[in-house]
Amino acid sequence: MAHAFLSKRIVTPQGTQPGALLVEDGTIRAVCRPSEVPADAIIHDCGNDALLPGLVDTHVHINQPGRTEWEGFRTATRAAAAGGYTTLIDMPLNCLPETTTVAALEQKRNAAKGECFIDWATWGGAVANNQQQILPLADAGVLGFKCFLIYPGCDGFTMIDQQQLEAALPSIAQSGLPLLVHAELAGPIDAATQRLANADWRRYETYLASRPDEAELQAIRLMIRLCRQYSFRLHIVHLSTALALSELKAARREGLPLTVETCPHYLHFAAEDIPDGATLLKCAPPIRSKENQRALWRGLHDGTIDMIVTDHSPCPPAMKRIDTGRFDQAWGGIASLPLALSIIHTDSSHRGGTLEDITRWMSTAPAALAGLAHRAGSLQSGRDANFILFDTETEFTVTLDKLHYRHTISPYMGETLRGVVKATYLRGEPVYRNGIFASTPSGREVKL
């Protein structure tokens, strides 16, 4: 039986248009005129709500198995469904064991069984000593690889130096899968931290100075050189410094296979407004200045930055060290899965952004990075019927009951945002609607 979802605003690759989204057997059959809907179809009138493809987040720390007390598949995917996401790609660290071997990948799959409200997949890790695991992980179904050029904060996932990385790059290139890089180098950070040895670590200014733009710039320059040499797909995660935009743009003009992401917190918060002791806003790389933020938005609009992903990185509240307010002691990570769409819609609307822009940044481009464009990221015939109903006009205040992830702390608490996810559909079935979740998780691992 076909279902037809009628809306005045369906966001398609051809633009936003009125019509009907025709769904049958979990698949999009067509975006058509209401007059073309089959007579026996079940009609769903979505009123003034916009229909967008389900969001895809390629940068999420689910932390299960091993650190499920931080987050887990059930809580992360519930929070994501409430935020309009239908696919999450899990990072290979903060879980135990880290996803750096095929055996660890199978443990993650076992942990996810029956727990996911939306679809998921995972990246593999490229670490100091697992070069021989790269191709087996690719064959086993990871969608790409993540590496850190600096200590990542958890001992089990080792950073990778240039020599170790170059030993892995031929296999990464052979796999055809992307390499996602945390692009900070230790040299500038170590030097800055030494200079700040006697500084007041409750001050945000101190933390910001400890992770200078130069750490990102040097790392990005290194990765562009290696991309040119080894011809692999390079993806820069959570770009924080706008000073790198010109070099990224030049690398693109050169034809290098390069993509770039940034995150809601870099686009919403600015260093000048962060109070001392506000460790809920610690992340790495750090949130920088208002002028830097404006330049990141320009980079999104001109296409230098491809996508917006959350870097959802939760932890138990005690690890944020709200008690001491010391940025050097606090865990670096911000959770935003249920709020990201509303944050970006609120902020982009002040900058001339459209629903088409948001769809490209938060659905189409991440799906392409993960190799899932054939099934996710756009409302087109033959794709999975993953879509959301989005009320673009209603405002709400961020309160505890809006968060849904395991530990309900947030630097967005009390803010007023515009745009509410009314419903999230996975393969044509509602997994979240008007504040109520499906009773049974129906998400599954998606593969290339």
From TrEMBL:
GO terms for biological process: allantoin catabolic process; purine nucleobase catabolic process. Residues 51-431 form the Amidohydrolase-related domain. The keyword Metal-binding applies. Its cofactor is Zn(2+). It is an enzyme of class 3 (hydrolase). Keywords: Hydrolase, Metal-binding, Zinc. Its EC number is 3.5.2.5. GO terms for cellular component: cytoplasm. It holds the Pfam family Amidohydro_1. Pathway: Nitrogen metabolism; (S)-allantoin degradation; allantoate from (S)-allantoin: step 1/1. One of its GO terms (molecular function) is zinc ion binding. InterPro entries: Allantoinase, Amidohydro-rel, DHOase/Allantoinase_Hydrolase, DNase_TatD-rel_CS, Metal-dep_hydrolase_composite, Metal_Hydrolase. Belongs to the metallo-dependent hydrolases superfamily. Allantoinase family. Homotetramer. NCBIfam families: allantoinase (TIGR03178). This is allantoinase. The lineage of its organism: Bacteria, Pseudomonadati, Acidobacteriota, Terriglobia, Terriglobales.
